[in-house]
Amino acid sequence: MKKGYWIAMVSITDPEAFKAYVGAYDEAFRKFGGRFLASSGEALFPEGFPAERTVIVEFGSLADAVACYHSLEYKAALELRRATATSHLAIVEGL
């Protein structure tokens, strides 16, 4: 089965309030098997727009990645992220 991935580029608009988002997704990621592969660190942007954070989260399948995003467990975390950052998020199937 092909894995699923969240690929997010995040620019934080309220750094202090954004801290509440970090960890608010733990329950959803545990339930759907989300595992961070990359988060922040050094990033280069040779094309497109830069972001403060680039994040890659791996799931066991595309269905799990989509279900996590739409889950009740992630809903509160999503609201926190939207209130404190602008994001570009893609949910993609692996090779």
Word description of this protein:
By secondary structure, this protein is of the alpha+beta class. Helices cover 35% and strands 32% of the residues. The protein has four helices and four strands. The chain has helices spanning 15-18, 26-32, 62-70, 72-84, and strands at 4-12, 35-39, 53-59, 85-93. Strands 2-3-1-4 form a four-stranded antiparallel sheet, with helices on one face. The longest helix has 13 residues, at 72-84. The protein is globular. The mean pLDDT is 96.
Q: Give the C-alpha Rg.
A: 13 Å
Low-confidence stretches: none
**What class do helices, strands and sheet pairing give?**
alpha+beta
Number of helices: 4
Q: Order of strands across the biggest sheet?
A: 2-3-1-4
Count of DSSP E strands? Answer: 4
Cα distance spanning the termini: 10 Å
Mean pLDDT equals 96
Q: Give the overall shape, derived from the CA principal axes.
A: globular
Question: Percentage of helical residues?
Answer: 25-40%
Portion in strands: 25-35%
User: What is the ordering of alpha helices and beta strands?
Assistant: EHHEEHHE
Largest sheet: 4 strands, antiparallel
What's the structural blueprint in terms of helices and strands?
Elements (H helix, E strand, L loop, with lengths): L3 E9 L2 H4 L7 H7 L2 E5 L13 E7 L2 H9 L1 H13 E9 L2
Antiparallel strand pairs: 1-3, 1-4, 2-3
Helix pairs in contact: 2-3
